[in-house]
Amino acid sequence: MRTRAELSEALADPELPSDRARFATVNKRWSDLAAAFELAERWQDAAERHAEAEALLAEEDDPDVRGLLDEARAELDDLGPRIREAMVEPDPDDDRDTLVEIRAAAGGEEAALFARDLLDVYSRYAESRGLRAELLATADADAGGLREATLAVKGRGAYAVFKHEAGVHRVQRVPATESQGRIHTSTATVAVLPEVEDVDVTIDRNDIKRDVYRSSGPGGQSVNTTDSAVRLTHLPTGIVVSMQDEKSQLQNFERAMRVLRARLYERARAEREAEMSKARKSSIGSGDRSEKVRTYNFPQNRVTDHRVGVTVPLREQVLVGNLAAITDALAAEERRQRLEEQTGDGA
Q: How would residue 289 be classed by pLDDT, with cut points 50, 70 and 90?
């Protein structure tokens, strides 16, 4: 449903309010296309002025009328691409809340410290965008690092803001323990999942194996005297989710279910997109963890996103939670690709 006439007809349907799901879908689509409709009205007005000027010039060559013709033509040239971009089908999950999973990868202690840095950066960036960040789970490592962490980010457009963070992030710096001043390269992986409700993903409780155990801290020491930690295994897919940050087994179970639903939804989403885009080669990438999406170079005080070739200051921007230059460039590239797919350009 793309045209204004179709949406107007749907909104005028007296039975629409009684169908909550359809009502929400139609209203969201109208909201998504509001800018495109406004641009289309401006284009129609410019087209009419252009036609009138051409008709007048056919009768008499008048410099003022020729100026009006040139003005209308320039406006049409400007509005055309903007209308096409505004009509791009958005990612249906963009408005959802999101879960950001960070894991230390290659590099031992330094990778764990980098994972901690990424968690801090994402928490600050979420706040700067007016989003709420909630730390769902952490697994501490030695020296203040993190083996892994799960951050829930809530607010309209949270998934759209963070989705391009998925992939392998590489850091280059001199560790505090390095006496020779040598630069070490370490990595952390980031997964970004749209958060979903029970109605989005149905999980048969018979498909879940539930284990409980005592929570543990860095080095494996016990930090709880009761079996409050929960491990869920989804038997059909083999997906495992562990949660231990809460003192209540029920709270840990509920948090683990949130993560499990998100992972199952993302798995289905990835399979669906793979089927639809087998021939598509994306410069933004699939978020596959074999891809190094970004490098954080401390000696040179720069961060480079390899998908769009954008480089920004590390300490003055990224470490204080300002990722806007990078995420805006990635969002623009996604829109360009979606427009290319819709119009068939570059195929």
A: very low
